[in-house]
Structure formats: C-alpha cells, structure tokens
Write a structure and sequence with these properties.
294 residues; Serine Threonine Protein Phosphatase 5, Tetratricopeptide repeat; 0% strand
Length: 294
C-alpha cells in the first residue's frame, strides 16, 4: 500500500477494533476478517499475497450479519487497491466501481454509529482507487471526475479530527496526480497547496505529522517545477529540508530522507539560476550520502 493509504487504513482498522463490534452474530468470522484487514498493511507482503488476503476478507465479510456492512466495504476497497498495485487494472477498476456503488447504497440507509464514522473515509478511498485505476487505463477525464468526488466528500468532514485530515490529504493527492497525468499541470498545483495547508493544521495539533507535512511540501515543489515555477518552489523546498533536519535529531534513519530533500532543493535552486545555493545543498547531500554509504 502507498504510505498515506496505509495511514488511513490504520485509522479504519482502529475504528473497527474499538467501535461497536461486540454482539456480532458470528464472532469467529468477524475475528478472521479483522485479522485479515489488519495484516494487509504489512509491507513484507507481495502484491499477489495482498490480493489473496483481501479476497479472503471480501468472501468472509459478505457472510457477516446486518450491521457489519463497513467491513465488507473496507474489504472491497482493500481488494481494489491490492489489484491495482499488482497491475491487474481491469479487475481493480471493476472492484473499485463496485466499492463506490456499494458506498452510495450505504449512504442511503439508516447507519450504525460505526458505519457513520467509517463511511466518508471509505468513500474517499473507493473513489481514489477508482481514479487511480481509470487513470492507468487512460480514461483521464473519468479519473479526474472520480478524484474530484473524493475531494468533495472530504470537504464535508469535520476539521477537528486529525484522521479526517489524512482523508482530505489523500483525496487531494488523488486529484493532483490525475490532473498532472492528464497534462493539466497548472491545475494540479491548487490541490498540492491545499494539502500543505491541511498538513500544517495537523502538525499544529500533533508534531507526529511533521513528516506528512514534508511529503506535502515535496509534492508542491514537484508540481511547481513541472510548470517551470522553480523560484516559487524554493521556499517549500527549503521548508522541507528544515523539517527533515528536525526529524533527524530524533531519528538517524531520517538521514536518507534529508539527503533526498537537499538534492531536491539543489536541483530547484539550479533551475532557478541560484547556483551558489544549489552547490551548497548538493555538497551537503553528497556528504550525507557518502556517510550513508551510497
């Protein structure tokens, strides 16, 4: 799974484990589904292993009683994402479409508190995966439409819950990616800027999201550079570097990320004609890479 999707998925699994699951008529199947969903985030799994595990979750969650619809939808989204990462785009598109349609059906019924909590995140995930699949299939306008729908849903979420921030950023990244792939690079800058704003608010609530902010800044730098706005990209590139300097103080494993950020800053400064700054950043990145044995 992609990092941000994994973070959202961790939030979903936490909800599943802590909200209203007692009293299910078939606890054994429920436990199996929950275990499968939790294990899907394991980075050691191959793409095909992820697909196989998600298929099992879909099959078992279909058999759960009324009130556990969120588990079935979660399993469908997981399967669509797994199929997409395995390169099985046609199957992924079909599964993602099913997940989107099922999520719409659920929004029209009387929902349990658990499902009310989960549904927007799942809808965003379903539309985002569908957008990715459509984009890979060359259906650019349909992909952008699906991504726009994910953003629309995310705007309805409360800004007071950090997990909603993850959902919003993911939706914005889906949209930016599809706009960029469709050659609409200038339009792709707006969602990148908004993702930075949302990430800043998350950091204000909890510094644990600093690396998320760094990632959003990197995306913004890329979007600006894609349209030749290198001078404008220098500021977010510098901020990204400073964030990684701070993170390195807590964890030396971030040194590689700091080196990458310095290389991005060096390239951005070079393209903007600021050669002295470019050389300085490139030299620091080179020294770090040498230290890391690269």
């Amino acid at each position: 799974m992609k990092p941000l999707f994994s973070k959202l998925f961790e939030s979903l699994c936490l909800i599943l484990l802590t909200v209203g699951l007692i009293g299910c008529g078939n606890q054994s199947k429920l436990d199996k589904v929950l275990n499968l969903l939790q294990n899907l985030g394991d980075s050691k799994l191959s793409a095909e292993e992820t697909v196989e595990m998600a298929q099992k979750a879909v099959k078992l969650s279909r058999q759960l009683p009324e009130g556990q619809e969120g588990l079935y939808l979660t399993s469908l989204v997981s399967l669509a994402n797994g199929l997409a990462e395995a390169g099985r785009i046609s199957e992924a598109t079909e599964t993602a479409t099913e997940a989107v349609e099922y999520s719409r059906q659920l929004s029209e019924i009387s929902m349990s508190p658990m499902l009310q909590l989960m549904l927007p995140m799942l809808q965003i995930s379903a539309h985002g995966v569908l957008a990715t699949c459509l984009g890979e299939a060359g259906r650019a306008e349909e992909a952008i439409e699906a991504a726009n729908e994910a953003v629309k849903i995310s705007r309805q979420l409360s800004s007071h819950d950090i997990s909603n921030g993850v959902s919003k950023i993911m939706a914005l990244q889906f949209l930016g990616t599809q706009l960029s792939k469709a050659g609409r690079s200038v339009e792709a800058i707006k969602p990148a800027k908004e993702a930075v704003v949302v990430s800043r608010k998350m950091v204000q609530e909890d510094a644990v999201w600093l690396e998320q902010l760094a990632g959003a800044l990197k995306t913004l730098v890329e979007r600006l550079c894609n349209v030749g706005r290198h001078a404008e990209a220098i500021r977010p590139a510098k901020e990204m570097v400073e964030i990684y300097r701070e993170l390195v103080q807590e964890d030396d494993d971030r040194l590689s990320s700091l080196a990458d950020a310095l290389e991005t800053l060096a390239e951005t400064c070079r393209e903007a004609g600021r050669l002295t700054e470019s050389f300085k950043s490139a030299k620091e990145a080179e020294d770090l890479n040498r230290k890391l044995g690269k």
